[in-house]
Design a protein that fits this description.
This protein has one domain (2-134, 171-197, 216-297): Rossmann fold (3-Layer(aba) Sandwich). The chain is 41% helix and 16% strand. It contains 10 helices and 8 strands. Helix 2 crosses helix 3 (107-118) and helix 4 runs antiparallel to helix 7 (202-213). The protein is globular and about 55 Å long. The mean pLDDT is 97.
Length: 298
């Protein structure tokens, strides 16, 4: 079912909920950039069959939350979305009375990383999927380009240059240009979905890069819950995670620098960015995530 959720600032956020008959925990999905929550229905139904209720909001500038202004929303689109997730977590805990586990994918994985430093006490664990350790020159360059775009082009203007520099570079790594997944049917569904693949605004990217710069700092590390279970999972051919290198670096950060020893790392061979939606080895991929959830709810 879909409902509207009133967030911390009274904004109406679209939330999709798939309820399990006997709920042992709630999985809160934090979706990626230029997509929407309804795409996760097959995975949600799978989790329902194992006792997990699933909830996923359409982020600001995405899906039915902002269907008329896709890619843009007033306010700080990154920080406000993190606060939306915190408010939704509180709502889910109150409604169902069971633990809440975050599952953040791609852009949502960076939102989830931020959540870990701001409200770790609200959740039982987290899956960070399709992610990276983004503390490099690209973040500062992106911030500068996004800021200049806001000033000279307008914050609502689609940031085609940033899109070309990022997604265009990802596509060049593959002969077929399809960095999203190795599954032709999934790629066709994504490209044919009017709520997917749009160009985000300069404001979106400016807020996103600002949010990334707040990660991995001393203040961020101080807010982390050292014993929180975390699963890092990605495709080994995912350019967002620099073909596994960035995800390994992220694992080292959480384990060694942040002292979070309950951090697991799984990389799926021959899988690209949307590993959940690839037909190949789907049972293994979904089962890996399910096993992590089961370990938190025994």
């Amino acid at each position: 079912m879909e409902m509207m959720f009133e967030s911390f600032d009274k904004k109406q956020i679209a939330v999709h909920v798939w309820e399990a008959e006997h709920c042992r925990a709630v999985v809160q999905i934090v979706h990626g950039m230029t997509e929407h929550a309804a795409r996760y229905e097959p995975f949600a139904r799978f989790l329902n069959g194992h006792g997990y209720t699933v909830a996923a909001d359409d982020h600001r500038g995405h899906g039915n939350t902002d269907k008329d202004t896709l890619g843009w929303c007033a306010g700080d689109m990154f920080a406000d979305t993190v606060r939306d997730e915190a408010a939704l977590t509180d709502c889910l805990r109150a409604k169902y009375g069971v633990p809440v586990i975050l599952f953040g994918f791609s852009y949502g994985s960076f939102l989830t990383q931020s959540c870990l430093g701001l409200f770790p006490e609200k959740i039982a664990g987290a899956v960070i999927a399709g992610s990276n350790y983004k503390k490099d020159f690209e973040v500062y360059l992106g911030s500068a380009v996004a800021w200049l775009g806001c000033v000279f082009c307008g914050e609502k203007k689609p940031a085609k240059l940033i899109e070309k520099l990022s997604f265009g570079a990802y596509a060049k790594r593959f002969e077929d240009g399809e960095w999203l997944s190795a599954d032709a049917a999934n790629n066709a569904a994504y490209h044919g979905d009017p709520m997917c693949g749009f160009t985000c605004s300069f404001r979106f990217y400016s807020d996103f890069f600002r949010g990334l710069r707040r990660l991995y700092t001393k203040k961020y590390i101080a807010g982390l819950k050292k014993d929180l279970p975390v699963l890092l999972v990605s495709g080994e051919q995912d350019p967002v995670g620099n073909m596994g290198k960035g995800v390994r670096k992220l694992a080292r950060f959480y384990r060694e620098k942040a002292g979070m020893q309950n951090t697991e790392l799984v990389l799926f061979e021959n899988s690209r960015h949307e590993f959940l939606n690839e037909e190949r080895d789907r049972d293994k991929k979904w089962g890996t995530v399910l096993s992590f959830f089961d370990g938190l709810t025994r």
